[in-house]
Amino acid sequence: MGKLKIGVIGIGVIATTKHISNLLTREDIEVTALCDVDTEKCVKANKDFGLHAKIYTDYKELCENKELDVVHICTPNPLHCPMTLEALKNGKHVHCEKPIACTYADAQKMITAAKEAGKKLTSGLQWRYNAAPLKIKEMVQNGELGDIYYVKSQQLRPRRLPAYGVYTNKALNGGGVLMDGGPHSIDLPMWLTDNYEVESVRGVTFDKMKDFPEGNDLGPWDPENFDVEDTAMAMITMKNGMMIYMETAWITNMMQEAPGVIASIAGTKAGVDMVGPTFECSVRTTKIVDGKLTTEIKNLEEPVDMNAYDINHWIDAIQNGGEPAILPEQAATVTRVIEAIYESAATGKTIFFD
């Protein structure tokens, strides 16, 4: 294949810091189209990245551009499904940011449309591709942990709510932290154990901290424009009996052992944790050695750029005919779990999958 021509819809923080910046490290692509209702963002991106991309305000017009091969969707969550369907209808491969959709039904529509179009579809669940998760995945695949029966996943940000954009507006964002950090915190334990077969979900959500905007790393927010959850927890039971306990929060008076999205795994042969102080680059193993309980911390010297990993594997999949690093079916299961957490939190019931 020759150079891929790529269009990007939604020119916000994720588009510029992850998508465009990493796409432009490759010689086999061109970013030739940008779309945003705020054209100044497109103008600025053209200037900042030295692009000469055509600017659109209507995503349908961008998708109808016959020269484009690929569309990257970096818009607020409720727009993911209609924009993806439009791009696929026009014969484009689609990278859609997480969550892939706000509902499982919409995610299924997107997957079906991609298959019918014969095009590739992926979603931005790149947090699994840091050094520590990749090392733990290797240990799981090698059987070093034995029979895995419990995984704990955390992304507890003491004061790191993205006050920019529409994150605190349910109508415009589809939800709160479950739609932001939640997809990563749900996907990571499933990907590490290669287990997306969910039996049931029990979840709770909180909005206790919206009236305490002081000290936020990403600026102040307006408590009057805040109708989403800031914290969520869930117990996810898998069909093989394994249990996942997930915690995610934008604002909390708690700290976790390492920054980012982290996981701890208990197996019959050994347990493993992601620990600090480095950013997802240290792995602690606990096991019996010569009859004694032993703990070892391994500091991984080579960090992995998760965003570059996602984008490079995505473009390679299109160019070489393989699978993207993040499968749309995995992303759809994550969305289904998010839906179940919301339903469980609202009803107080455990939600069972078919």
From TrEMBL:
SUPFAM superfamilies: Glyceraldehyde-3-phosphate dehydrogenase-like, C-terminal domain, NAD(P)-binding Rossmann-fold domains. Gene3D superfamilies: Dihydrodipicolinate Reductase, domain 2, NAD(P)-binding Rossmann-like Domain. GO terms for molecular function: nucleotide binding. Residues 137-350 form the Gfo/Idh/MocA-like oxidoreductase C-terminal domain. It comes from the Bacteria. Pfam families: GFO_IDH_MocA, GFO_IDH_MocA_C. Residues 4-124 form the Gfo/Idh/MocA-like oxidoreductase N-terminal domain. PANTHER family: D-GLUCOSIDE 3-DEHYDROGENASE (PTHR43249:SF1), UDP-N-ACETYL-2-AMINO-2-DEOXY-D-GLUCURONATE OXIDASE (PTHR43249). Belongs to the Gfo/Idh/MocA family. This is Putative dehydrogenase.
